Amino acid sequence: MAGRACGRRGAGCDQRSDNALTAAGAGQRPPSQQRASSIAAYLQVARRALALMLASPLRPYAPLTAAAIVVGKVAPIVAAWVGGQALNELQRAIEGHAFTNRLVMLGGLVAIFVAARSIYGALSHVVQERIELDVDMHFEILEARKLAELDTATREDPRFQDLHENAERVGAQAVQDVLKEPLQILGGIGGLLTAAALLSRQSWFYVALIVVAPAPFIWTEFRAGRREYDARIYGTPKRRAYNRMIAALSEAASALELRVLGSLDRVADDAVRLSREVRADQLAARRKGLIENTLVSLSVALCIGALAVSVVRDCVAGTMQLGTGVFVMTSLWQVGDMFASLYRAIAGLERTRRGATDYLRFLDWAPSVAWPKNGWRLPHDAPLRIEFVGVSFRYPGREDFALRDVSCALEAGQRIGVVGRNGSGKSTFVKLLLRIYDPTEGRIMVDGRDLRDADLPDLYRIMSVLTQDVEVYEFATLAGNVELGSPAPLPPQALSAALQKSEADEFAKALPHGVDTLMGREFGGVKLSGGQAQRVGIARALYKSPRVLVLDEPTSAIDAVSEQTIFDRIMGHDADDRVTICISHRFTTLTRADRILVFESGRIVESGAPSQLKTAGGPYQTLLEAQTRLLL
Q1: pLDDT tens readout for residues 370-422
Q2: 308-316 long-range CB contacts below 8 Å, 24 or more apart?
Q3: CA distances for 525 relative to 408, 478, 507, angstroms
């Protein structure tokens, strides 16, 4: 149960969070040790963020967006000053009973400001929605492609999982904010300088207040931002466990199982407990700055309040014109808003920089399984021989070996069956062949060259794989699902041949729109049975006529008659030019194999033709007889 993993072993979650972002792919230290918050560090992150944003749909809007952020901070102060001047001029016109040109001009400026504000508000809302949609989808695709490019070992690394969790939650927004917040600060400073310049005409005391008041806020908010980000990072493993629990409660299959088992409330209770722990960590970080922020806010409010009383007194005494008083009061209100905005932006600098840094680390994370830029490529007509030479392997974080000293050769035209008990090393053998992992010891050779030196995408061009868990892509039609077996669609004959060999053509005819039927009910299509899904998976694996075909329990959900027909086709004449490897617990599927590899405790303990091994008195015969008795 997930609750047991982070419930009774909650201390383990805390310990792992302390080590969550230790030096790995990018060599970073835990957040509490990261103090590189200098201007140079921020500029380095901002430079990368700018490159990302200019490569996104934001590029055409970037200059306009930057200008709007800065001008939006200065314009209200200028508008308030123009309004104050217009009110002063109106007061003089009333007193002198004379309509002046200056009043007309100032009134016109006020009207222009009002109209511009309305137009800007309407346009900015539309443009902002367009930008957010385009940019959000751009980064979603960027993150998805990064995940798809990474190998299994990397994706299973808890340090990478924590980093991905942070990137998914705050990273993309942090990349945008790392550029927007300096502009907001620049605009805020511009607004404050404009206010200071206009207010200095009344009294330098106003200017001194503007300069001195922000200092305590900047200090307290900066500290608060750093504390909140530390709390967020430390809580990542808990939050990840919480997300998995919510997924288990939300997904139909897992929710049904938990409901039938009576464990639904246990998982829900664990999710509630973890959510409280995550919230408690965040609130504890915020609580530390609450008192100091309250005291600083109170002191500034008292200063501005006293100043407001002084302005009202001067206006009543006649030493300050009404329009000027209104401008001063309006400016003080706006300056207060600018202070708040400036505090938030400055407080967010450290939090945003670290969030953007984590996001960039996520994008830069190097896969555990990498390949050279100029790796060797396999010629189309080259003879194919794959050889395991003393291969041993253990999974990351494990001391025991999943494979031990495995040596064998696989050649074109061979039909290889792989059998053994659960945990004997069968699937690991295939994972190394597909280079999902690299051997801990030994080498895998392809035509005499090390697999690690190959151009892996080029090598995948000749490989196909069908795993135990067949994926039917609901966003695609039946034809589209099969055509995903190749980088680009092949001629229609290839689709027809793949469907016929997998016997998927039979049920395809009965679908509402044939091969053009969508595969998901959520999209108005149909949902396939388990056996139909496996047929689609087999068709996808055969679609590009691979030279290496790997099948891992490919027909576990297909009836015996159809299974035999499919294997007769897969193991028939088409297999003469390829290496066909089939993992199966059902020995009836392997009767046409040329050779059987029997795995036990990570080693190949038997190898030979099925007809030889079934009477050899070894592990194969034991497994075969046990399955035969079970069927009888």
Answers
A1: 888 889 998 877 778 999 999 999 998 888 999 999 999 999 999 999 999 98
A2: 308/332
A3: 45, 10, 14
Q: What angle do CA 117, 121, 127 make, to 5 degrees?
A: 135
C-alpha–C-alpha distance, residues 628 and 83, integer Å:
95
Task: Determine phi and psi for 558, rounding to 5 degrees.
Answer: -105, 140
Q: Give the DSSP H or E segment for 16.
A: helix 10-18
DSSP assignments along 245-269, one per residue: HHHHHHSHHHHHHHHHHT-HHHHHH
> What does the alpha-carbon distance between residue 417 and residue 6 come to, in Å, rounded to a whole number?
41
What does the block give as tokens for 473?
A: 């892509």
pLDDT exceeds cutoff 80 at 160: yes
What are the pLDDT digits (tens) for 108-140?
A: 877 877 777 777 766 666 666 667 767 777 887
∠ Cα 48 130 115 (to 5°): 110
DSSP 397: T
CA atoms of 44 and 492, how far apart (whole Å):
51
Q: What is the pTM of this model?
A: 0.68
Is residue 329 within 8 A of residue 314, CB to CB? The reply is no
